[in-house]
Amino acid sequence: MVEVLILVLFLISGGATGWMGVHLLPQEMLDDVTDVQRVRLGLTGVGTGIGLVAGLVFKRLRLQLMQQVRTMPTDLLISRSVGLILGLLVANLLLAPILLLPLAGGVTLVKPLAAVLSNVFFGVLGYNLAEVHGRTLLRLFNPTSTEALLVADGVLTPATPKILDTSVIIDGRIRGMLACGLLEGQAIVAQTVIDEMQQLADSTNLEKRAKGRRGLKLLRDLRDTYGRRLVINSTRYEGTGTDDRLLLLAGDTGGTLVTADFNLAQVAEVKEIKVMNLSELVIALRPEVQPGDELLLKIVREGKEESQGVGYLEDGTMVVVEEGRTLIGSRQPVVVTGALQTPTGRMVFARRDKNGHKTNRSSKNGKSKGVRTDNAEEHPSA
Questions:
Q1: Is the model more confident about 17 or about 319?
Q2: Largest Cα–Cα distance of the chain, in whole Å?
Q3: pTM above the 0.85 mark?
Q4: Residue 227 class from Cβ within 10 Å (0-12 exposed, 13-18 middle, 19+ buried)?
Q5: Closest CA to 200 of 177, 217, 223
Q6: pLDDT over 90 percentage in the chain
Q7: Which of 25, 134, 186, 301 fits a disulfide with 130 by CB distance 3.0 to 4.6 angstroms?
Q8: pLDDT score recorded for residue 217
């Protein structure tokens, strides 16, 4: 709506300039014209066309400027703004004597032309000088901020804000990610997320009510712990649901959407919105298990097939053991035969170690890869 309004204003301004600009033409030219009204209409059409082109150019420049402002560090944005303002101030100070000159006839067109050219020239000059030498000013005003200097020099990129989805708040693991430093920048919680958790907390369903209260309590704890780093965005976007509003917020702010919802992450990627899928992050951090690895695994339940048993690694990965149904409740040495990776998780297949040798592949902390070892079982004499 704003872009359409800006385009209409450019059209009206161009048409009005052409309509009123007929008086700026030399009087000798007007004397030779038999139909001044036709000339006025022609200038109005030309002015409207120029206004349309200028409006489209301004619209494109505005979008690029907004994108740069969202990703630009605040200190660098301030220095460039100050440089632009100083350049425009110098341009108008130098322009004042020219505007006071008594010019007549067609020479009067020099005044608006000089005004436009001087403002553009000195404005761009001030902006560029601030971009080059503004870093020196940053060092003078804040000499101890190493991070600000690295960002200003282009060595570091500014951290994008993280927009939290309802799923990651209720999940609770977002607290650990913030504590470990895995999430940089500000954490933004949209008003629609708070409304959704309030609805869950007021639900008559015990499970939903527990989730809503757990999410609200987590937000309160995060606010007490991180203070101003946790930002509540009160903007109410139009949309059919929380997911649509979060996508609009992420698109406007240029932030990264943090979610555990696989479908929402896929939609965000289609719309070219930066997204961090918590489920994919957990899967990526799991230890790798390769075919041929030996594990000491406790078989806890039956599998789908008749002879299968199922155990779990310490990270929750399910291991299907062939011929393991009769060994439920015992810890047995198994050999990994393969693994299946799915968008929702990973499944490992293994078979019993028929030689009966228990794994001896241990890490530095005395644990085998992916499972705990039992020293009493491996060393009966101990």
A1: 319
A2: 119
A3: no
A4: exposed
A5: 217
A6: 4
A7: 134
A8: 92
